Amino acid sequence: MAEEENKEENIEGDEAQNEEGNEPAKGKKKLFIIIGAALFLLLAGGGGAAYYFLFSSGAKKDVIEQAEPVFFYDMEPITVNLATIGDEAQKFLKLKISLEMSQEDMMEIIAPRMVRVEDAFQVYLRELRPSDLEGSAGIYRLKQELLKRVNLAIYPAKIDNILFKEILVQ
Predict the structure, then answer these.
(1) Which of 47, 92, 125, 165 could anchor a disulfide with 96, C-beta 3.0 to 4.6 Å?
(2) CA distances from 34 to 31, 42, 139 (A)
(3) What is the pTM of this model?
(4) How far apart, in whole angstroms, are the C-alpha atoms of residue 65 and residue 68?
(5) What is the DSSP string of 20-31?
(6) With 0-12 CB in 10 A as exposed, 13-18 as middle and 19+ as buried, what is 142?
(7) Do 147 and 162 form a contact (C-beta atoms < 8 A)?
(8) Rounded to the nearest 5°, which phi and psi values hold at 89?
(9) Closest C-alpha to 142, from 58, 80, 70, 59
């Protein structure tokens, strides 16, 4: 019986040594896996970045070359009194506007209708208060309203955008 107990102790002792011996081996295995994965990600990221910087610049040039031409129609400067409330000092708005279009033949259609466009702008602009033009949101709303009015005045022709060359509130 004593021999059987010694054998069992030896077997248990060997298992304990194996488990202790495998821990450093398992730790090294995990370390190699982590290092390998990190190197793979580093090489893949570097390769992707190199491809992007070396080969994508040609695609940008193609996009620039394929851009459609744009044409501009410069309007006469517009100066209007802004609406005031009570005893406020009178304020003026001066605008220099350029109309953007994608087709050159639109200029021929627009030119005889510019009287309508200027009238639509004058009527709208005279109703504005100085507070309506404050900040970038006010200028954006002004741009959208003028674009809507110009497209109504020159229908069936269409303007793509309105560009402000000068905005002066005095």
Answers:
(1) 165
(2) 5, 12, 55
(3) 0.60
(4) 8
(5) HHHHHHHHHHHH
(6) buried
(7) yes
(8) -70, 145
(9) 80
Long-range contacts of 19-23 (CB under 8 A, 24+ apart): none
Q: What is the pLDDT of residue 59?
A: 54
Tokens of 25: 């081996």
Amino acid code (one letter) for 97: I
Q: Where are the alpha helices (DSSP H) in 56-134?
A: 57-66, 106-110, 114-126
Backbone phi, psi, residue 96, to 5°: -120, 120
User: CA 151, CA 145: separation in Å to the nearest integer?
Assistant: 10
Q: Name residues whose C-beta falls within 8 Å of residue 127's C-beta, 6 or more positions apart in sequence.
A: 83
Q: Is 43 helix (H, G, I), strand (E, B) or coil?
A: helix
Question: What pLDDT score does 146 carry?
Answer: 95
- Can you give the length of the chain in residues? 170
What is the C-alpha to C-alpha distance for residues 153 and 115, in angstroms, rounded to an integer? 9
What averages of pLDDT result for each successive group of 10 residues across the chain (170 residues)?
52 50 70 86 81 68 70 93 84 94 89 92 92 91 94 91 92
User: Residue 68 corresponds to which tokens in the numbers above?
Assistant: 């459609």
